[in-house]
Specification:
By secondary structure, the chain is of the alpha+beta class. It has one domain: Beta-lactamase (3-Layer(aba) Sandwich). The protein has a 5-stranded antiparallel beta sheet with strand order 2-1-9-8-7, with helices on both faces. Strands 3-6 form a two-stranded antiparallel ribbon. A two-stranded antiparallel ribbon has the order 4-5. Strand 1 and strand 2 form a beta hairpin. The chain is globular, with a radius of gyration of 18 Å.
Length: 256
């Protein structure tokens, strides 16, 4: 398999969709890579939650916060939308680490707000700067009032998302975050058609007309990073089907 063939596959996938930004890179050989609009800034949606988790992990490693700290369900922000937290009673305790898990595994927004309130938005933006994600920002949180169009002020790029995935993959401080991402329950995009023995540590992002998925993909015969950011889509469901097929074709190419 050549980088040229890989680039051709990515170009064909991006053609005629919406505003597509993507990157793929083999873990064993970074020169085996392909990109489309990798530096275009798009709304980050929920993929930024990985950076929130990494900031919390760093603060905990320094002793600035305690991931075993318990927070009662009733003290968290209420939401009009469906939330896994509605399954808990108001006095049920949830550790900060458990809330990070809910933030990543089911992308729960009230859990995200609780983690972000503990960590602080400024410290997340400092983490982004210090780790080389220069084109990514967090300006608004995930409260109900900010969901939808307002949340589009949070921006990122495919290149920054690749940097983020590599940090999670390489730093032992973030091992628990990678494990949480590998247990993501929203698996209708990149993972949909991949073999059952493939471990996909990934995070999705969703807004109207926007479909993201960023992933560390590892199986006995392949290991690579894949970032797909898509905005201005006419038909989200149609794009997801195209992404399923692209991910399967890419996996086959990476194992050749």
């Amino acid at each position: 398999m050549s980088a040229q063939a890989l680039q051709s596959l990515c170009d064909r996938f991006a053609l005629g969709q919406g505003k597509i930004s993507l990157l793929v890179e083999a873990k064993s050989d970074p020169s085996l890579c392909a990109a489309v609009n990798a530096d275009a800034r798009l709304p980050s949606a929920s993929v930024i939650k990985i950076a929130v988790a990494c900031t919390a992990a760093d603060l905990a490693a320094r002793g600035d916060i305690d991931l075993t700290q318990s927070i009662s369900r009733g003290s968290l922000d209420e939401t009009f939308y469906c939330s896994i937290l509605h399954a808990f009673d108001a006095d049920d305790p949830l550790t900060l680490k458990a809330l990070i898990g809910l933030m990543l595994i089911v992308s729960d927004n009230p859990a995200t707000s609780a983690v972000l309130q503990t960590v602080g938005m400024d410290r997340v933006n400092n983490w982004l700067d210090q780790n080389g994600l220069q084109d990514t920002n967090l300006s608004l949180g995930f409260e109900d009032a900010h969901l939808g169009t307002p949340l589009r002020v949070n921006l990122t790029t495919a290149r920054d998302c690749l940097t983020l995935l590599k940090r999670v993959d390489s730093d032992p401080t973030y091992a628990f975050i990678k494990r949480m991402l590998a247990n993501n329950l929203r698996n209708e995009r990149i993972p949909k058609q991949l073999p059952d023995d493939t471990v996909i540590a990934h995070k999705t992002g969703t807004l109207a007309g926007l479909v993201h998925d960023i992933a560390i993909i590892e199986s006995p015969i392949a290991a690579y990073y894949l970032v797909v950011l898509a905005d201005e889509l006419e038909d989200d469901a149609e794009f997801v089907c195209a992404l399923n097929a692209f991910s399967a074709d890419l996996y086959e190419m990476m194992t050749a």
